[in-house]
């Protein structure tokens, strides 16, 4: 691999969660994004959910105007979100499954089950110049389907791996890390760019950062939580350090 640098995308959704808890104007996710940029983030990720529980439409306007680094716009595969993405033309669009009742994005997208619709859904986004990423489980059938519909990128869901670590099931965790490693190589061989994310912490990031084919990690909830204790810039710098240290 010629460029082995692992990019860090900082997800700022939960700055907006704190803001929205009180309906105030602060803390401002745009300010957090600019700080993240200054701290060495390679991109900013924001998920505009259908129910607008954290990021708002105005936040997306603000991010597009303020950022000097790429925006990875996370969205469900709905006509409303497609129209918003086409209006803004962010660097990347990451298609995620979305259920109103979930606390966070629980599983990967079922691409194989919805292939035809998704192929038509992402085509205009690609034509508009966005890099289209599909958030999926580390599963060969889903990777094949993501490849067939014309996605340029897949993001592997690391939530199960992180949950097993949190439960103390280290055998299960290591098996899941192995599966992520194998599926990253499989997707890379198909010509897909491989990203990963969800639930990553200082404790869990290194084995994922060590996967040579993974080019970008998207990390939010832990970093924003850690920022309460050490500040956003040191919280990001520590994640960056661990990622660089783990790189093969
Ligand atoms: N990647 C995707 C596709 C996501 O949906 C999320 C959560 O919004 C993340 C990464 C970041 O997950 P976390 O906030 O748990 O770090």
The tally of strands reads: 8
Widest sheet: strand ordering: 1-2-3-4-5-6-7-8
CATH superfamily: Aldolase class I
Q: Given the C-alpha coordinates, what overall shape results?
A: globular
The unreliable regions are none
Q: What is the CATH topology? A: TIM Barrel
Question: How many structural domains can be distinguished in the coordinates?
Answer: 1
Q: Tell me, what is the CATH class? A: Alpha Beta
| Helix content estimate | 40-55%
Average pLDDT score: 96
Main pleated-sheet profile: 8 strands, parallel, barrel
Which percent band covers the strand fraction?
15-25%
Helix-strand topology string: EHHEHEHEHEHEHHEHEHH
Number of helices: 11
Q: End-to-end span in angstroms?
A: 11 Å
Per CATH, the architecture is: Alpha-Beta Barrel
| Alpha-beta content class | alpha/beta
User: Which radius of gyration do the C-alpha atoms yield?
Assistant: 17 Å
Ligands, deduplicated: pyridoxine-5'-phosphate
Topology:
Layout: E1 7-11, H1 13-22, H2 29-38, E2 43-47, H3 57-66, E3 71-75, H4 79-88, E4 92-95, H5 115-127, E5 131-136, H6 140-149, E6 153-157, H7 159-166, H8 170-189, E7 193-197, H9 205-209, E8 214-219, H10 221-230, H11 232-246
Parallel strand pairs: 1-2, 1-8, 2-3, 3-4, 4-5, 5-6, 6-7, 7-8
Helix pairs in contact: 2-3, 4-5, 5-6, 7-8, 10-11
The structure holds pyridoxine-5'-phosphate.
